[in-house]
Amino acid sequence: MYYLGFMAKTMFYKSSFYVLDMSLQLLSMIWHVESILSTVFLVYWQLSGKLEGLKAKLEVCQNFRGVRSKTHKFYDGARWFIILYVVTTVFNVCYSAKFYFEKLHSVWAMLISEMFYYKKLGFIMSIISSYMYSVWLTTTYVFVTYANAAYFEVSYFNKQIRNLSGTRDFLKEELLKNIEKFRLISEAIAELDMVFRLYTFAMLATVIPILIFTLMMLNQHMSSFTDFLICAPFILFCTCAFCSVTIAPARVHEECQNLKHSLCKNKNIWQPYDPEIYQLANTLSNHCEQNGLGISIWGFATLSRPLILGTLSATAMMMSLLTDLKPERIIEVTVEDGN
């Protein structure tokens, strides 16, 4: 918190208000704010036992059959997050080493170095930043893992509905069981929403400004392949942050919407005509008509593909507006007389 306060004071009272400098400074501040929020959420989930309760509700649905059928995808996700851990740590180490070994520093770097009375203690900030980013990645991994678990359970249930066949008595029995299973799945997804709705709102509220400021920085600063390599960590961070918060919940919502389609496409249920099976199938179909089933943004809207596209469109529009309104940097040249 002291670091954020010092950065805010430096930015608004001492630093240049040129748009590139502001973008870099705000980007750094928002990154740390997002890391602090992630820490708060992770501690709260652990102390309140919400993650354990959510795990129990997901397990009672189908005994984690859907998750077990996609175990390799969980391992793949863990590998990617380990890679991100390594990349983030290496980037922070290289950035700190750059400041210690280079001879010339930017005005911003010099001002930030005054945060500690003893400037040699500046490496402490690098350690804290690395730790905070690792907590952010851990919280994101927890969120994505639980969202994927819900997705795999719904996908497995969807597959069971598509492949449902047998005698009329068997179909009646299975439809009754599936109605109860879907009730449990709905409760689990509702609990998933209750646990993560505020987290998704907070992350999107910080990810979108990060995305805008990063694009502004790239638009004005990147002029060569070397600049692209320097800005690559920022691009990676923004891409991972936005995709992790939006894609996994959108998959859950989309799979929930496909349940009714799977039920209607299974001709073994509808042909030949059986009044009892029709009644059970219609009951299950009515239960599947829950457009709000998924992870919401603090209850305002359910995260879905149309919402993601709308968010990207709004971000692009804001980026275009800020680019048009950017001030031009004026370079003053003093001409001395030859006399």
UniProtKB/TrEMBL annotation:
Species in which this protein is naturally found: Caenorhabditis briggsae
Top-level taxon of origin: Eukaryota
Spans through the membrane: 20-45, 80-101, 121-144, 196-216, 228-250
Protein name: Gustatory receptor
Keywords, sorted A to Z: Membrane, Transmembrane, Transmembrane helix
Stored PANTHER family: GUSTATORY RECEPTOR, GUSTATORY RECEPTOR FAMILY
